[in-house]
Sequence to fold (268 residues):
Amino acid sequence: MGWWGKVIGGAFGYALGGPLGGLLGAAIGHSFDVGVQRIELEAPNWGAGDQERVQTAFFTAVFSVMGHVAKADGRVSEVEIQAARHIMAGMQLNPEQEKLAIELFNRGKQPEFDLQAVLLQFRDECHRRANLLQMFLEILLATALADQDLHANEQRILREVAETLGFSRHQFEGLLAMAIARQRYAQEGFHAGAKEKTPSLSDAYAALGVNENSTDEEIKKAYRRLMSQHHPDKLVSKGLPEEMVKIATEKTQEIRTAYEQIKRARGG
Fold:
């Protein structure tokens, strides 16, 4: 049936339990008033680490934490709201999923939102699967950077998210630098299309987490590692909701394009 079919067909928050279950149950109850009785009929036979359980946890955590990060600078601007909606559109959510995502986003903005509790449960639900946790963090980074203005409080919360999920300060700084470079790289590629230009080579290097002094072998290893980390099928098998495959696919395309540009510049 898939995680979404189970959520709307007879199981929601209390089946997941914990703070994530509380968030999901309250959001569904608020979003689908006429369906509350229907969706409370039965709980799914979910086991620890079950793919559909992880997908449900990922969906719940990513949108609620997204809202929390957006509120970090004191208010949620229209630009940030549009950025969140753009992310949702990129995920190709159906109308019901988008409605639920918005409600989770709004709940993440509330003063009583318990970021640490949500993150700790999410980490446990994912069984600390590094690639899945990294995709979670990258989605949050992309959302925070969408308005091209990373507020100090946003960066502080994102660093807290990273550390709670098990990433070191060095790893976080590296992921942030790559996220900034990929954003510039994607924007330059989009705007340069009609002018027959290409994104800068420096951003191509940064998008792979390497630099112009890196050897060909080091660049190839970085490229292969990133492609493996963002492989859509691998991520879905680990618990990435199917609706978010497009984001993973876009990331692999950006990584491949950057690598090809570096190869051409080096005469490869």
